[in-house]
Amino acid sequence: AQTVTQSQPEMSVQEAETVTLSCTYDTSENNYYLFWYKQPPSRQMILVIRQEAYKQQNATENRFSVNFQKAAKSFSLKISDSQLGDTAMYFCAFLTSGTYKYIFGTGTRLKVLA
Amino acid sequence: GAGVSQTPSNKVTEKGKYVELRCDPISGHTALYWYRQSLGQGPEFLIYFQGTGAADDSGLPNDRFFAVRPEGSVSTLKIQRTERGDSAVYLCASSSRLAGAESNTGELFFGEGSRLTVL
């Protein structure tokens, strides 16, 4: 069975600084997708960034980028130039290609300090 | 509407009562999911619909929980004889098709959730 582990329950970062959130996963599959979702206090989860396992190039979306290490089964999220609006819970998620059951980690609460 | 809509946003009920939580997915999304999120935890899978049928209900905790999607659009999660342990945020999400299918990002679109409090 697949598992997703986020070992940092809480983190904080100063505004404009860079922070990295960790995520590791366990799977025997070769084709899968990894996601980072953001859940602000309003509760609605939104997709931050997505990575296909078959792609070696790390995904980037503006200030958000990932460090995908397939052999190490690691998928960290880097937020550059942190903004107050980045304060939220961040969930790492895994999905085997061609299936529907997403597996979520327990989340990291990020607080951006002014 | 443009996004996934869930009602009610908050529901307070007494132990033993019956509750219904409604989800209106994004128009055209065939896949619909219900998740339960307890305080400080990640979403926990409950049930998945593909169209009108429940393709996988293995995450429903017991037979007090039931969900329907009669016309392949709106879904209702039904909880009978509620217990205090059922208190959580119930999230609904939809997507257009399975990840890996052509032109699909695999992205889930979530509603804001329904917070259920059982006294």
SSE layout and pairing:
The complex is a heterodimer of chains A (114) and B (119).
Chain A: E1 3-5, E2 10-14, E3 19-21, E4 24-26, E5 32-39, E6 46-52, E7 60-61, E8 64-69, E9 74-79, E10 88-96, E11 103-104, E12 108-113
Parallel strand pairs in A: 2-12
Antiparallel strand pairs in A: 1-4, 3-9, 5-6, 5-10, 7-8, 8-9, 10-11, 10-12
Chain B: E1 5-7, E2 10-13, E3 19-24, E4 31-37, E5 44-50, E6 53-56, E7 65-68, E8 75-79, E9 88-95, E10 109-110, E11 114-118
Parallel strand pairs in B: 2-11
Antiparallel strand pairs in B: 1-3, 3-8, 4-5, 4-9, 5-6, 7-8, 9-10, 9-11
Structure commentary:
The complex is a heterodimer of chains A (114) and B (119). By secondary structure, chain A is mainly β. Chain A has no helices and twelve strands. Chain A has strands at 3-5, 10-14, 19-21, 24-26, 32-39, 46-52, 60-61, 64-69, 74-79, 88-96, 103-104, 108-113. In chain A, the strands form three sheets. In chain A, strands 2, 5, 6, 10, 11 and 12 form a six-stranded mixed β-sheet that branches. A four-stranded antiparallel β-sheet of chain A has the order 3-9-8-7, with no helix packed on it. In chain A, a hairpin with a 6-residue loop joins strand 10 (88-96) and strand 11 (103-104). Chain A is globular, with a radius of gyration of 14 Å. The model of chain A has no long low-confidence stretch (mean pLDDT 93). Chain B is an all-beta fold. Chain B is built from no helices and eleven strands. In chain B, strands 2, 4, 5, 6, 9, 10 and 11 form a seven-stranded mixed β-sheet that branches. In chain B, strands 1-3-8-7 form a four-stranded antiparallel β-sheet, with no helix packed on it. The radius of gyration of chain B is 14 Å and the shape is globular. In chain B, 34% of the residues are buried. Mean pLDDT of chain B is 90; it is low at 99-103. Chain A binds chain B through residues 4, 9, 31, 33, 35, 37, 42-47, 50, 91, 95, 97-102, 104-107, and chain B through 31, 33, 40-45, 48, 50, 55-56, 89, 91, 93, 98-101, 105-108, 110-113, 115.
